[in-house]
Amino acid sequence: MKILSFGEIIWDVYEDKSCIGGAPFNFAAHCARLGAESYLLSAVGDDELGSQAVKIARGFGIKDDYIEIIKGKPTGRCLVTLDENKVPNYDIVKDSAYDYIQFDKGIENNNFDVFCFETLIQRSENNVETIKEILKKVKFKEIFCDLNIRKPFYNEKNIRLCLENASIVKISREEIPVVTNTVFGSEITDCAEASKLFSLYYKNINIIIITLDCDGAYVYDSEDKKEYYHACEKVRVVSTVGAGDSFSAAFVSEYMSGGNVESALDKAVKLSAYVVSHAQAVPE
User: Fold this and answer.
1) Nearest 5°: phi and psi at 243?
2) Three-state DSSP class for 230?
3) Which of 126, 131, 203, 273 could cross-link 233 (Cys pair, CB 3.0–4.6 Å)?
4) Against a cut of 0.85, is the pTM above it?
5) pLDDT tens-digit series, residues 235-262
6) Percent helix / strand / coil, the chain, rounded to 5
7) Which residues contact 3 (CB under 8 A, 6 or more apart)?
8) CA distance to 38, 105, 111, 199, per residue, from 256 (Å)
9) Which of 12, 11, 96, 117 has its CA nearest to residue 54?
């Protein structure tokens, strides 16, 4: 199974440490750990953080064939603070190397099974055009979008680009009213109501995943008109950074390996529970 993730490599900078991250990077790393041939189409700066990022990517098993070095632009950074519930807040540095990702012709003949992208990486018009070029020139069995809403880096246009092209969509419970208000002009909070509305207007979407934090996750299969729910594993929470990315990787990897929605959901909940019990977004 070959997976192509498109997006940012970001160093999460805390008060006392720096950790490599970025949703596409974490997703690609977990996919590689789960046995997929995992590629990342991204960019880093010609700096120390960029060199370290490529080295760490290789260590995780990520194929770095499509990680470009952009001279004159810094490797991505995100200043992270955790609130009293250990939920992260993000201050994402602008004009970074990953804002200038270019289409690589090598991906046209690589027979990828899955393409993954989200909204944050669309903050630059360059990347929007690159995504559109990929969607036009490369065929995939599934397109996975984790909307990954981050203020102020989202708008109706990039949310719709995800919804209009994805076959599998992941949204967090907190994002549902934001997305439904942006797209439909009405804030919806109910998982089932929102999922059925998405499937009604976007026929390309077959599976809608809604993560519910400590309450687990909900999935709506629009083809079979079936709903699934899985409670959260009870663990001691150390950090929620990267939990959603591990959930996505486990779900996609299991589903694309022949698993059904139930088994994919079960593995996704279990892996994300393991991740939140560790400080690292991609723990051993």
Assistant:
1) -60, -45
2) strand
3) 273
4) yes
5) 888 888 889 999 999 999 999 999 999 9
6) 40, 25, 35
7) 28, 31, 36, 37, 38, 39, 112, 113, 114, 116, 252, 253, 256
8) 13, 25, 14, 21
9) 11
Mean pLDDT for all residues in the chain: 94
Average of pLDDT values for 44-54?
A: 96
CB 57 within 8 A of CB 64: yes
Q: What is the pLDDT of residue 251?
A: 98
Structural contact between residues 140 and 2, judged by C-beta atoms closer than 8 angstroms: no
CA atoms of 154 and 67, how far apart (whole Å): 24
CA 109 to CA 251: how far, in whole Å? 25
Alpha helices in the chain (DSSP H): 23-33, 48-60, 125-137, 156-165, 176-184, 191-201, 243-256, 261-276
104 near 14, Cβ under 8 Å?
no
Tell me the per-residue pLDDT of 92-102, one tens digit each, with 9 for 90 and over: 888 999 999 99
The residues pairing with 69 across neighbouring beta strands, listed in sequence order, are: 44
- Residue-wise pLDDT tens digits, 215-241: 999 999 999 999 999 998 888 888 888
**Mean pLDDT, residues 157-169:** 97
What Å distances lie between residue 116 and 51, 144, 191, CA to CA?
24, 5, 23
